[in-house]
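Sample A.
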Amino acid sequence: MLLRRTTTAAVIFFRLTATISHHFSTATKPFSKIPWKHRSKAIQESKQALTEYLHTTRSLPFLYAENIARNSPNSLWKIVTKIPFSPSTFTNSFERFLRYHPINELDFFLESIGLNCHEIENPLPLFPHNTYFLSDWKQFKEVCALAGMGFPWSKLGLLFKDETFISEMDAGELKLKINEIKVVYGFNSVVVIGVCLAFPRVLYSNMDGLLNDLKILFVDYDLASLVEGNVDAMLEVCRKIRLFYDLGCEMGKIGEFMGRSKSVFIEYSEEDLVKKIEYFRKLNVEKEQVGLFLLSKPETFGFDLDDRVISVKELLYDFGLSKKELIYLEQKYPHVFGRNRIANLPHIMRSMDLGDWFFYRMKNGDHFLLKTYTIRSKNGGSDKYYSDNLLTLQAKKTHIYVFEKLNFLHGIGFGENKYAVKALAESRSSGTQLQQRFDFLLSCGIEYSKLCTMVRLLAKILNQQESMLEKKIEYLCKDMGLSLQYLNVSPQYLCHSLEKRIKPRYKLHKWLEEKGYCDKAYSLSTIIASSEKTFIARISRIHPAAAKKWQELIE
């Protein structure tokens, strides 16, 4: 396996460059048709003209008019495209257009608060098509009230994604609710705003459990003092907190856990937290347990669980399996053993039905082994057959495509061994397609470990499109009346043609049963899997009329 490493400096430079490029392109892309040397001035002039129009002509408070104009570049560009551009006349032309062509103010407003109506399940009752002016939209006063209480204008869209909040809005009630939260729970304005943006339900529903948790975290454990005194920083912290409730952790029950682990919400980015959560979620244990485990073992967030190489056998031994148990596992799941990356460890465990066992060991203190583990033996589980084939693959012109498929195999639990090489040779699709088909078969109900074994025995089952796999599974379960367990014994079923082989042979099987010609029991899998010559010879021995019936079925 190729383990590519990038220096920290290079990563930081790449991310910084990408961020600057993104912000620049986002701000200027809508105006790309204006000559570059005039673009900055045209953008500024159009924003000023729109602000003046909304404030003077439409009587909006200047601060709100300015926020709308400054934060709605796409809506603004739709107007600019209707005006022939000339550096000397652009401003006058833009102002003249606004005088004689009233704009849809609601579109500008929604964009300015960061809201896309497609993010709301049923936007029409909230934002009717016939609402053209903000003065006709009944919730606009409440929005202005929120802005007056310190809510960032461009973040207000986070509240609007909660449809119930919009329908329940009332400026007076909102102000009372926010003041009540401040007094009862001891939050300052920055904390309240961050909490409301991350959890809009606190503004209209009983969320005492959540607020009690947050009081323990922000006040009792004084997390608020560690957060920069601005709403953006507080919102970022609250978004991280929400990750654990989204995992199913019960509101009102995890305040102490979070308080004892408060450094997590400061030291790590939301991306870091999501990455670790997803890592342990791959073990397929209850998601609530993952949240509680990470909060009780916050040091886990600092573990390197990406590129380190492990020996599966050594690691299992370190986690407490006996030599006898390892021999049994190696015989039952030979495709798992050898070297692999620690990033693939959750799927390695699932591929041996050890996900729950592994998670239990970590909950009980063995999680530190993930940090301290290193390969000890001389060869560390390396496989010469695999290494030799790897050198051959690296020399191929298509090595990038091939290694994508190989990474898929290692990602689902295959070690660096001959079984991975065999499966790679049988795979005729891209790594992305293989992953999609593997995930589809999992969604059908096939157990993870059983599916990995099927891939070991017959990797070409993943060379088919999901639609065809779905039809074959549906025929197996509905028409043939068999369970998915049948595939554990006969995975080759998925490789046979449904119309030319499976259906006609099964129909013949039913015909033989209905006629009472079957004196001896025979395996349906044998009937389907046999070659054409062997199949005809077998059915002819069952009954002379069977071969004739077969010809009728395939004609």
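Sample B, a different protein:
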Amino acid sequence: MLSEMSPPIKSNIWTYFTIDKNDPERSECKICNKSYSRKGRTTTSLKNHLKSIHPEEFCLFQSANKEKELKKKNDEAGTIVTPLQQAKKQLSLEEVIQKEKKWDTNNPNSKKIDKLIGEMIALQNLPFSFVEGLGFRRLIQELAPKYNFRGRNFFTDFVCNELYIKLAAKVKELIEKYDYKSFTTDIWTDPSSGVSLLSLTCHGVSENFERSSIVLKCETFDDRHTGDIIAEKFNTMLAEWNISNEKVHCMIRDEGSNMKRGMRLALLNDLDCTVHKLQIVIRHGLRSQECIEAVKQKCKKITSHFNHSTIAQKQLEKIQDRLNQSHLKVFQDCVTRWNSTFYMFERFMKIKDALSLYANDHNIESILPEEWKVIECCLEVLKPFEEATREMSSSQALISSVIPIIQMLLKKLDVYLTKPRESDSFRLAVSNLKSQFSAKFSSLEDNNLYAISTYLDPRYKHKFFKPVTEEKIKDEIIKMVNDPVVPDSPKSPAEKTKRMRMGDSLDPEPGTSSMSKKTCLKSDLAMMLGSSSEDEGEGEPDNSSPDALLRKELVIYRNKKRLDLDENPLNWWKVNRCEFKILSKLACRYLSPPPASFPSEQLFSGAGLIYNPLRNRLEAEKAAILLFIKYNSPIFNFNY
């Protein structure tokens, strides 16, 4: 009867003990056969006995207990709890309070989420009202239930004040590391909204030869686009970042007369965008012959036919299926981007058979055999120009590559003209292209910004200069070291005008293709670099000269083996800066500019998403801040 009244035995301790049948409050050890009291019918005294007298068995007891608890947890995890059972579960008062309590604004988790949301608004060109959307709130509620939601007003102030101020401080800290700064700038007008934007991007190389590009400003430009107002704008933007005009190495801009005048009035060294100049030369070359222009217009008409008809596209795809070809669409030509014409011709050649079969069954103009020959010749001539455009529009491109690439393109044109051709009209077009090209790029070697940067690039050095020009470059370097203010600070606008004489057209910069292509550009340059015997060494300079140390560096630098084209010249200078203490500082300065204003153009693609009809109430200052955060945050890995 007593045993029936005893509680059920569940503990593993009873593996080593038995209950006394005569006295339920006593137990007998199975190991030593001794009887022990367990007042209150607990097992504590039994565990203590096992621990002190039988330690080995106590270890086994603990292991069994752990296995039992683990099995219990696994069984509970596999049990499905119904909503009714969950509702019946009674929460403690503390649990209720903690469940309802939200993070305050100073909570580290809340601050982290605020920062991520603010960056997301800038990076993805989202409206501030996005944070009030149902979908976004449901997502955050699921991921962070304790997050206290903020409205659009909070994030407007948070992004435009806290994030911007912190990031601007980091940007200012970075640009102060550059002894001299280079800049790219451009003006863009959105065709849909009519909003004009003026951008300014800073480029620099630090003492550790780390190169970076920083967006300083991209603001609305509501005034007239005159040179006087442009000069005033630039002076204001530079002053905002405490950048003196003397510290501006050069400004890359388009060839508009208003931009040129603005640079002269602001007393800034400026250069034409190389890609803009290529755009003008090639466009004039293509228009010089009626046969090329006629083929171009016919291709554009055929392209429009397919772009305005999904039925036509489907039928073209069926023809490509019959020919076992992949589905390729026609490529649209754009008047402001010369290489879009190249890509249109290239695509037509790839789908030539499919287009011919389509034209036989439909009412569109077919391309004649002689017209296909014109397209083929255009592709042959323009291929190096397309590669040069992509190369100089790269984020890694240096201004030092302009002279080598231009000389390579001129050589390509000469080679093409020496070959016998069937079409005299196309030969005349290429001859005209060469004349335009030579006229536009005839004075590059006379410009110190191009010449010195090329000479200080260990991939090129003196290879593309005549001995007389090389001596002039060395003299300029020596003069610059002795009087560092002279070369980059024009004394008057008249001197600036005389020195810079390159065109007067205001053409938008052509874009570049993201298509993956095997380039011949570097192989052609490598062939030019290796076309002569190894560089001849120079003798030791006169040690009695006051510039002996610098001249010695120039001799040692010239005699060193040139770097391969695929290698980074900045890394070379980083490794050899201790050996060339004077020249390395000049390399930081002259290798900082890009060859084109393409970095500023990239801003406008993002600006077009911000300045749209759905955000017509967005203030210009806030839009400029959003672009600033979008393009500068990744530079610091979002750590600011």
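Observation for Sample B: The beta strands are 17-19, 26-29, 35-37, 181-189, 196-205, 211-220, 248-253, 270-272.
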